[in-house]
């Protein structure tokens, strides 16, 4: 969980969730530039994350991709916004990890 808070290491194209996803309140994330990373973090609160070693998808990076084309500054700003939302909804025992991962910028 702490590793996932620090860096999104999950390829979105290959994710499968259990039925509990419909119970998650997505309202706090609607204004964010990213939805996959915070959703992975919330899903990990409900149970362990599994990994299938088989190739399940191909992820292509190209210059016109929404995230790939974004400047490094806008990517960092998006991460800070996500950490601010997470700080407000994660359990207290994980808030220190959010603060550390954000470089202390979630104030």
Key structural traits:
single chain, 107 residues, mainly alpha, 4 helices
Could you characterize what this model shows?
- With 107 residues, the protein is mainly α.
- The protein is 39% helix and 0% strand.
- Helix 3 runs antiparallel to helix 4.
- The longest helix is centred in the C-terminal third of the chain and has 18 residues.
- The two termini are 22 Å apart.
- Mean pLDDT over the full residue set: 84
In whole angstroms, how far apart are the ends?
A: 22 Å
Q: What characterizes the major β-sheet?
A: none
How many beta strands in the DSSP annotation? Answer: 0
Strand content range: under 5%
Order of helices and strands: HHHH
Report helical residue fraction: 25-40%
Flag low-confidence runs.
Answer: none
**Shape descriptor:** globular
